[in-house]
Every structure is written in structure tokens, then in C-alpha cells.
Design a protein that fits this description.
Helix content of chain B: 55-70%
Number of strands of chain B: 10
Radius of gyration of chain A: 21 Å
Number of helices of chain B: 15
Largest sheet of chain A: none
Order of helices and strands of chain B: EHHEEHHEHHHHEHEHEHEHEEHHH
Shape of chain A: globular
Largest sheet of chain B: 6 strands, parallel
Radius of gyration of chain B: 33 Å
Number of helices of chain A: 10
Distance between the termini of chain B: 16 Å
Strand content of chain B: 5-15%
Structural class of chain B: alpha/beta
Distance between the termini of chain A: 44 Å
Oligomer: heterodimer
Shape of chain B: elongated
Chain lengths: 273, 421
């Protein structure tokens, strides 16, 4: 990508990051605290984003959708435009929890098209990777909590629906308590996973230079994060609970495990045996 | 000292007998004073509830506590002995302690685990203490019984499950919502039963109550009871998305809430759970509403089923509680056994110590003064001797404590060592 275009895109990503912060606070504290600020930054970011796309088109004298970074940037911009229209027309604030992190991650990845020279030192490289791994593991732990609580929720819900109290009814916690636990652990897990994705993608970008994005294991990580984002969105806005939410939580956990297996090259070990 | 608990309860006597023996609160002090004044009685407590009249006394060894209490009852209540004797239960010694702990823990109650009995026992204790009828050993025993009851309640689930329809509704609400704080309740149809359930929900933390009724004035009247809001009957459905718990008891001959309506309500609530309690007969809510995700519909039979399951569960918990009570009785008995022989052990040790001190003094006068090393050697030697001498009798006392021959062993040792009474 053109040098100036990437700079404008980085400015846009920085502004969009306020949207991510708003989403995190909304999920963890369950209050829309930063929405007005985040929305303002989002609109301003969209201007820089637009400038970046025009710059890229003018420099190369073509529509900037020829590689994955340009396409991601264009796709994110279209999402931004559609969201701004929907927000203007229908005032759907709750949609921001889904859109802001999605746009931020897409734009962040788009800025990682041009390889940078190298790591300043090996210590920084290793520390960066360690932070990414720790965040992922903590995120998976939180997700595991949410999954276990979801399964318990299903048992308790069944007891209450069948109206014949048995052992589970007396021994399992209340649905409200479980729901609270699921929401909190899922939100914390999502925040950790998002930060892990940001840390991981920048690490891979510096480490692997060009072509990092086309690696299957990176693609599967983004896919897993995308499902997680959808789950969090459906829970917070549509109020998904019980069976549907439990199945989706188990799915996200399954994909997280798969991503882990792929990254840890456990597949090779398994295949050898 | 002898301990006796005797009386009648719902298990041994019909209400016609129980009411003849009952003591009103205002007559209790005089009755306790009368009982305490009888020859041989050391302490007394009278527990009088609708399900039991029970007298606990301690007497000296020479007295017959059964005869004392029966004559007290017959004289006080002007009854013939034959009229009450067949209904009386009697527990002495260990059995009495076991019975007292069971009563305090609500294991002997008509509804096992009900909490009132402990309060009633505490009132009986307070009344006895106020008029000086409890002032020593029985005080310790009753205090122990209260601790046992507390332990039973906290260590078993005996009192946790609701055993009435209205409390079952509260319990289910807690199972669904966790806490009832900030939950809103809607009462549809102003019946007695729904009023009771709403009252329990309100006292358990529900924040607001809406009331609706075909006759609006009745709704206004009932809303006042809960500082709630009356709602026009025609618009109560439109308010349902804001309500967490709905209690219906309207006299309508048909369903007033249908599945499609409730589907819209739950969608408007963004799938937040809802608890519908239909205590009307005929029912007010279409039963298929329970099939909707996050809606929990209970009719009067479902609530009764929960109550029955809770009673079964309480009986299971009662078995744990019984084991716990036996453990506490054993502990109490062990403590009593030790207390029984402790004065003799202490007396023996003091006697031997006096002999030792006197003998050392004699030796010191004759051969002293001694160097510190010599003093230390004498101290170690003499203390070793008296400890060895005391070991045999003390072991015997401890081994025989609480046994039938225990009193003889105590007497023999006291005599052998010239211990004063």
C-alpha cells in the first residue's frame, strides 16, 4: 500500500480504537459510557479512512481492491458508511458493540500490509509474543467458565421447565446468578481475546513480513474471533440465553481449541502417533 | 442430679388434650414459680406451643421428677392423672438431652424444619430465666440446644425449602432470577392467594407491584397494600414487557394470556426471563406458554408439586440433621462425664500437692538450706512421685465417668485419699 495511505489509515485505526474501548466498557460494566465520544471519533475516523482509500486509488491509479489489505480496508469503510446511515436513521446504539470492534480489527489488519524493518531487539519480540499467548490463555479460561456456566444453566432451566424438582434444582445456582456469571466471563473473555488478536496480528505482521495474512492459522484465529464477536453481540442486544447461547458458547470454545491446536502445532504431534 | 423432660405433643396427644395442658404467656411465671417451689426441683422450664406442652426439670437424686411433674400438672390444671398419663412422653438423662436438641432443631415439629419452634423455645427459656427458674445447669443445656439448632440449620438444608404454595412461588422466583431486588411484580385479579404471594415477594426484595383487576376500585385498594400501582385491566398486557413476575388469579372463565401474546412480550423484553404464576381455577394462562424460551409458567398443581418435592427433600436433610444431633448429644455427654469427675480429680491433685509441699518443708527444716540445684532435684523427684501415684486413680475416674459404677469409683477414691465432700 502507498506510504501516505497507510498513515491516514493508522490515524483512522487510532480513532476507531475509541469505539473498541466503548464496546469493552459496555460489555464489562454494562453501561454505554463512552458512546458519544466513540461515535464522534468513529465519524472522524471514517473521514481519514476515506482519505486513505482515495490516496491509495490515486497513487496506484486504480480502484484499491487488488490485495487483501486494500479489500479489507474498503470492506471496513463500507461497513462504516452503512452503520452511520443506520445509526442516523434508526438510532441503533446497541449495534455499536458489534460494529466498533469489527471495524477496528479490520482496519488494524489493513494497516499491516507494508512490512516494517525488524524487531528492535529479541527481548521485545519474545515479550510481545508472551503477552499475546497469556492473553489468549486467559481469554480461553474465561470462555471455559462461560461454557461450564452455560451447561449448568441448561440443566437448571430444564429442571424449572419440567416443574418436577430433582437433585439439580436444589444443588445448582439460580438462573439469574448463572446468567450474570456467563455475561461477565464472556465479556472479560472477549476483551482478552480482542487484545490478544491485536497483539498477535501485529506480532505476526512484524515477524512474518508480507504474506502473514494468508496463513491458514491466522485466518482461523480471525474467524474464531469473529464468531466470538457475533456471540457477544447476540447476547447483549438480542438477549440470547439458554440453549442457543450455550450451543454458540460451546462452538466458540471449540474453535478456540482448534485455533490453539493449529498454533501450537499439536496437529503434527497427533498425526505422528 | 436428675434431668426429666415430659409433656404432650402433636404426636402423642390430640388437640383436645393439648389445649387442656397449655399455659398462656401471662400464667407462665406463676406456674414456673409453683413448679420451682416443689420439693427437690432445682430448675424448670415450661414450653407451651400449639403443638406441644413440655416441661423440663432438674431435681436432686433423691426426688422422683416424674411424680413431681405429674402432680404439678394435675393440681395446676385440675385434671385427673388418668386423663393425661397415657399421652405423656418422658425422657430422662441422655434421652432427654437428645429430645431437647431434636425439638430445638425442629426435627420433632409437625412440619419438619419450620423455624418458629426455636423462637418459642427461646421465649420459654427467657420466661424461666426471668423468674429465676433457670439459674445453673439447665441454663448451659438450653444454650447448647440453641447452638445445636443453629448448627443444624446452617449445616443442613432442613429449613431452606419452601413448604407452602406462596413461599414456593418466592423460592421459584429466586431460582429464576437469583436476587429479587429490582424485580417487578404484576398481580392480575385481586384474590387472597395472589395477595399473599405478592406480599412474600415484596418482603423478599421485589421492588414494585402493579395490580390490575376487572373492577378497578379493587385494584386500587390492593395496590395500596403494597405501595403499588393500579393498572387499567384493558392495558395490563401492554405493560407486561416491564414485568418480571406475573401472578394471575382472576375469575375469568377462559385464558386471559395466550402463547402468541406472550411471544411478543418476551421478544419485547429481549428474552429476559419471566415467571408466570397462575393460581386461578380455571386457569388464566394458556399452558403452552411454558414452551416459550425463557418463560416459566407454574399453575397451582405445579406449585403443589414443588412443595411436595421440597417436603421429600426436607426429610432427606432431616436424616443428616438427626446424625448431627446424635453427634452433639455424644459431645454433650462426654462433657458432662468429665464435669462429673472433675471435682474429684482436682481434689486429689490438690491433696497430693499439699502432702508434697508439707514433706518438702519438713526436709528443708531438718537438712536445709539447699543449693538451687538440690532444690530443683527435690522438686523433680517429689513431683514425679505424686504424678505417678495420681495417675492410677485419675485414669480410673475418667474411664468410669458416666458409667453406672462411676459413682462407686468416685466414692472409693474419695474415701481412700481422705478427700472432703
Amino acid at each position: 500500500m502507498a506510504e501516505m495511505s497507510v498513515i491516514w489509515l493508522r490515524v483512522a485505526a487510532a480513532l476507531y480504537s475509541l469505539g473498541l474501548l466503548h464496546a469493552i466498557l459496555t460489555l464489562v460494566r454494562r453501561r454505554e459510557q463512552l458512546f458519544r465520544v466513540a461515535m464522534g471519533a468513529f465519524v472522524l475516523g471514517s473521514v481519514f479512512h476515506f482519505v486513505s482509500i482515495i490516496e491509495e486509488g490515486l497513487v496506484n491509479n486504480r480502484c484499491p481492491i487488488t490485495n487483501i489489505y486494500e479489500t479489507l480496508s474498503m470492506c471496513a469503510f463500507l461497513i462504516v458508511v452503512v452503520y452511520m446511515f443506520v445509526q442516523w436513521r434508526y438510532k441503533m446504539n446497541s449495534l455499536s458493540v458489534f460494529i466498533f470492534p469489527l471495524v477496528f480489527v479490520m482496519v488494524l489488519v489493513s494497516t499491516l500490509g507494508n512490512p516494517v524493518s525488524a524487531w528492535p531487539s529479541r527481548v521485545v519480540r519474545d515479550a510481545w509474543l508472551t503477552v499475546h499467548i497469556v492473553l489468549v490463555l486467559l481469554g480461553i479460561a474465561a470462555l471455559l467458565f462461560a461454557t461450564v456456566a452455560s451447561v449448568i444453566y441448561l440443566f437448571q432451566e430444564r429442571e424449572l421447565k419440567t416443574k418436577k424438582p430433582r437433585a439439580f434444582y436444589y444443588r445448582l445456582p439460580a438462573l439469574g446468578t448463572l446468567d450474570d456469571l456467563i455475561s461477565k466471563s464472556m465479556a472479560i473473555g472477549f476483551v482478552l481475546m480482542t487484545l490478544a488478536v491485536v497483539a498477535g496480528s501485529t506480532w505476526a505482521f512484524i515477524e512474518l513480513r508480507t504474506g502473514w495474512i494468508s496463513q491458514p492459522k491466522i485466518a482461523i484465529s480471525f474467524f474464531t474471533w469473529g464468531i466470538y464477536l457475533a456471540l457477544v453481540f447476540l447476547r447483549t442486544t438480542a438477549g440470547w440465553r439458554g440453549r442457543k447461547a450455550a450451543i454458540m458458547t460451546v462452538t466458540v470454545l471449540g474453535f478456540s481449541a482448534l485455533t490453539w491446536v493449529v498454533h501450537a502445532r499439536l496437529g503434527n504431534l497427533l498425526l505422528k502417533q | 442430679m436428675k434431668l426429666l423432660i415430659t409433656g404432650v405433643s402433636h404426636k402423642t396427644a390430640p388437640v383436645a388434650v393439648r389445649e387442656l395442658l397449655a399455659f398462656r404467656d401471662d400464667t407462665l411465671p406463676a406456674a414456673l414459680a409453683d413448679l420451682k417451689a416443689r420439693e427437690g426441683v432445682a430448675e424448670a422450664v415450661i414450653l407451651s406451643t400449639c403443638n406441644r406442652v413440655e416441661i423440663t426439670v432438674t431435681t436432686d437424686d433423691a426426688s422422683d421428677p416424674e411424680a413431681i411433674v405429674v402432680s404439678f400438672l394435675t393440681e395446676r390444671k385440675l385434671l385427673r392423672r388418668e386423663a393425661i398419663e397415657p399421652h405423656l412422653y418422658r425422657h430422662q438423662g441422655r434421652e432427654a438431652i437428645h429430645h431437647l436438641f431434636r425439638v430445638a432443631s425442629s426435627l420433632d415439629s409437625m412440619v419438619v424444619g419450620e423455624p418458629q419452634i426455636l423462637g418459642q423455645l427461646k421465649s420459654a427459656y427467657a420466661a424461666a430465666k426471668n423468674c429465676g427458674a433457670v439459674c445453673g445447669w439447665l441454663d448451659g443445656l438450653l444454650t447448647r440446644a440453641f447452638s445445636v439448632a443453629k448448627r443444624v440449620r446452617s449445616d443442613t438444608g432442613i429449613g431452606q425449602m419452601a413448604v407452602s404454595i406462596s413461599f414456593a412461588a418466592v423460592e421459584l422466583s429466586r431460582k429464576i432470577f437469583g436476587s429479587l431486588a429490582n424485580r417487578t411484580v404484576m398481580i392480575v385479579g385481586a384474590g387472597k392467594m395472589s395477595e399473599l404471594a405478592a406480599r412474600h415477594l415484596r418482603s423478599s426484595g421485589a421492588s414494585h407491584v402493579f395490580v390490575t383487576n376487572r373492577t378497578h376500585e379493587r385494584a386500587v385498594e390492593m395496590a395500596k397494600l403494597f405501595q403499588g400501582t393500579p393498572v387499567e385491566y384493558a392495558r395490563f398486557v401492554s405493560l407486561l414487557p416491564e414485568v418480571d413476575i406475573v401472578i394471575t388469579s382472576s375469575g375469568a372463565p377462559h385464558y386471559i394470556l395466550h402463547k402468541d401474546e406472550m411471544q411478543r412480550v418476551i421478544a419485547a423484553r429481549r428474552n429476559k426471563p419471566m415467571f408466570l404464576i397462575d393460581i386461578a381455577v380455571p386457569r388464566n394462562i394458556e399452558p403452552s406458554v411454558n414452551q416459550i424460551d425463557n418463560v416459566f409458567l407454574y399453575d397451582i398443581d405445579d406449585l403443589q408439586e414443588v412443595v411436595n418435592a421440597n417436603l421429600r427433600e426436607r426429610m432427606k436433610e432431616a436424616q443428616h440433621a438427626e446424625a448431627l444431633v446424635v453427634e452433639e448429644v455424644d459431645r454433650m455427654m462426654a462433657r458432662l462425664k468429665v464435669a462429673e469427675v472433675t471435682p474429684t480429680i482436682v481434689g486429689l491433685q490438690e491433696q497430693l500437692e499439699q502432702i508434697r509441699a508439707a514433706e518438702i518443708e519438713k526436709v528443708r527444716r531438718r537438712f536445709g538450706p539447699f543449693s538451687p540445684e538440690q532444690e530443683q532435684a527435690i522438686e523433680i523427684l517429689t513431683r514425679g512421685i505424686i504424678n505417678k501415684i495420681a495417675h492410677g486413680p485419675i485414669s480410673e475416674l475418667r474411664n468410669h465417668a458416666g458409667q453406672p459404677e462411676g459413682a462407686h469409683v468416685v466414692a472409693a477414691i474419695r474415701k481412700a485419699f481422705h478427700l472432703q465432700e
